[in-house]
Design a protein that fits this description.
Structural class: alpha+beta
Strand order of the largest sheet: 17-18-19-20-21
Distance between the termini: 46 Å
Number of domains: 4
Shape: flat
Mean pLDDT: 82
Number of helices: 8
Number of strands: 24
Largest sheet: 5 strands, antiparallel
Low-confidence stretches: 429-434
Strand content: 25-35%
Length: 434
């Protein structure tokens, strides 16, 4: 027997968190009550997904239970309390007959079929990103898969007996398929760029014929136009890169489960993969036993080092030019001032790099700040007095009863995550001492 509950009950057995460790045991998700063979009951608290199938139903094998929690699909054995994740995000489900089976749409990318023996088959990836016009028959699932390469929907068919696929839009890269690369196609026709080019040619011809400017003036006007276009392109690329970087820095503030939930809300699978790769490059929190460790971005460290050495190199180049070129005293003073400003900038970059070598550790006993030179500052949870969020300074401050404090920047860990960890450790270990 199984029953889905509206919330965690106030009495009875403690719910088992699935996956293990989700929400540190203090968050509420999809709560299901299971009954063992001896009649006793136990509770499971599943991490909810962002969207998708939300249902609890019997497994075709007649023994297990399938739990879909708004995306993730779990197979649960009520007797042994074992749970296995079968798919990360199911967004559609169909019941098949002869023999009885269940068909699931996984992320609008492929399908999996569950029967009496478990997962009978999983189809290969069919679409780059999305299905439409799905039609189920006795022998096959038909539909259309979107292709970003051709910007069209391509038909496909999945054989319900063994999961083989014909058609579809997804083609694996060379390193996955082992096939020789196809001849590259011309990029699609861009009407906007074409019309801008025609308009520029017409305006340039009219201006040249009617005004007949001197060659120097014409060259200057064209140079200004090209420079403006180049600056706009550079500005647009820098702004786009900064937006992506800001989003990645925001993702680093959450734990792995919350980052996965946020990434799943992004409709583009390639964008999800890119953001996940960037997050991995920047680095995230690490866990060793009961100790969780937070540190600054590894990418920030490398870029600060590059900026420091670039400033030093530019300052040296300016000083060499000022000493070797036949310049006036005023010009040399200006160049020396520029070199001094760059040197101060290099010192600032060096200070920032050293400051970002700190590591913050949260254990059941204390919060610690470990500096690059080995110096450690520690505040015990039992002596904690207050926690203050300083949004204008971009940091969170912990204070003990003596007035000592440790400040953790928002770029290292988010306020929501830090409050969750603080409440968990204070409630569990406030009376402990290391």
């Amino acid at each position: 027997m199984l029953r889905r509950l509206p919330s965690l009950p106030g009495t009875g057995p403690i719910a088992i968190t699935i996956p293990l460790g989700w929400g540190h045991g203090v968050r509420e998700g999809v709560v299901v009550e299971f009954q063992r063979a001896d009649g006793s009951v136990w509770l499971a608290n599943f991490a909810p997904g962002p969207w998708g199938v939300d249902n609890v139903l019997a497994h075709p094998n007649g023994r297990d239970v399938l739990v879909a929690t708004g995306g993730p699909l779990w197979s649960v054995n009520p007797t042994t309390e074992e749970a296995t994740e079968l798919a990360p995000a199911v967004v559609g489900m169909w019941t098949l007959a002869n023999p009885p089976r269940l068909l699931f749409n996984n992320q609008d990318l492929n399908f999996l079929c569950i029967g009496s023996t478990g997962v009978e088959w999983t189809s290969p990836r069919i679409s780059w990103d999305g299905f439409r016009k799905l039609r189920l028959s006795d022998a096959a699932m038909d539909g259309e898969a979107w292709s970003p390469i051709d910007d069209v929907w391509k038909p496909f068919r999945v054989n319900l007996t063994d999961g083989t696929v014909t058609g579809g839009s997804y083609r694996p890269p060379v390193e996955e398929s082992g096939a020789m690369p196809s001849i590259p196609r011309m990029p699609p026709f861009n009407k906007t760029v074409f019309l801008i080019g025609i308009g520029y040619a017409v305006v340039n011809a009219i201006f040249t014929v009617t005004v007949q400017p001197p060659p120097a003036l014409e060259f200057s006007i064209l140079g200004v136009l090209y420079a403006a276009v180049l600056l706009w392109i550079v500005f647009w690329r820098v702004a786009s890169a900064w937006r992506v970087r800001s989003f990645v820095r925001q993702l680093r503030r959450f734990d792995a489960a919350e980052r996965t939930r946020i990434l799943r809300e992004i409709p583009s699978v390639p964008a999800q993969a890119l953001l996940q790769r960037l997050v991995d490059e920047h680095g995230g929190p690490t866990t060793t036993g009961a100790i969780e460790r937070f540190q600054f971005s590894a990418v920030d460290q490398r870029q600060l080092a590059f900026a420091m050495w670039a400033s030093v190199g530019a300052a040296i180049a300016i000083l060499v030019a000022a000493l070797t070129l036949g310049l006036s005293t005023g010009q040399r003073i200006v160049m020396a001032g520029s070199a001094a400003a760059l040197s101060l900038g290099a010192v600032g970059f060096r200070w920032l790099a050293i400051n970002r070598r700190r590591v913050f550790e949260l254990s059941p006993f204390a919060i610690s700040e470990i500096h690059a030179n080995g110096r450690i500052r520690r505040l015990n949870w039992g002596g904690m007095a207050s926690l203050k969020n300083r949004p204008w300074l971009g940091r969170i401050e912990f204070y003990d009863r003596r007035g000592e404090h440790i400040a953790i920047p928002h770029s290292v860990v988010g306020i929501e995550r830090l409050v969750e960890l603080t409440l968990s450790h204070v409630s569990e270990g406030a009376d402990h001492r290391p």
